Amino acid sequence: MSETAETRGDERIELIAADTNNDGKADLWAIDTDGDGVADVYQFDHSGDGTVDTTIVDLNQDSTPDQIIDGDGGLPPA
User: Fold this and answer.
1) In the beta sheet, which residues pair with residue 44?
2) Cystine design at 33: which of 1, 7, 17, 57 (Cβ 3.0–4.6 Å)?
């Protein structure tokens, strides 16, 4: 069970869902949780199994991580 991420809001608006290793599955997500159009959560699937391995939260949206979580942080991709 991974730690729960503290976010700016309760929404999950995927601004980017990218397939960086060309396997046909998303492995990078940039997420807006408060509806302002700016990402405040970034998620990565390093292992290629389709699940989030690392979640980075930037509460202040200043490009400095406020929280780095092993796992999806309670915010699984849709």
Assistant:
1) 28, 54
2) 7
Helix then strand then coil, in percent of the chain rounded to 5, is 0, 30, 70
Per residue in 7-61, pLDDT (tens digit) is 999 999 999 999 999 999 999 999 999 999 999 999 999 999 989 999 999 999 9
Say what the pLDDT of residue 62 is.
95
- Write down the residue that tokens 């929280």 correspond to: 67
Number of Cβ within a 10 Å radius of residue 4: 14
* HSE-CB for 35 with a 13 A CA cutoff: 3
Edge-first strand listing for the sheet containing 41-44: 13-18, 28-32, 41-44, 54-57, 67-70
- What are the structural domain ranges in the chain? 13-70
